[in-house]
Amino acid sequence: MAGIAEVTTLSSEGNPTLKTTLAVMKALGISLTADVSATPAPT
Question: Is 5 exposed, middle or buried (0-12, 13-18, 19+ CB in 10 A)?
Answer without folding.
Answer: middle
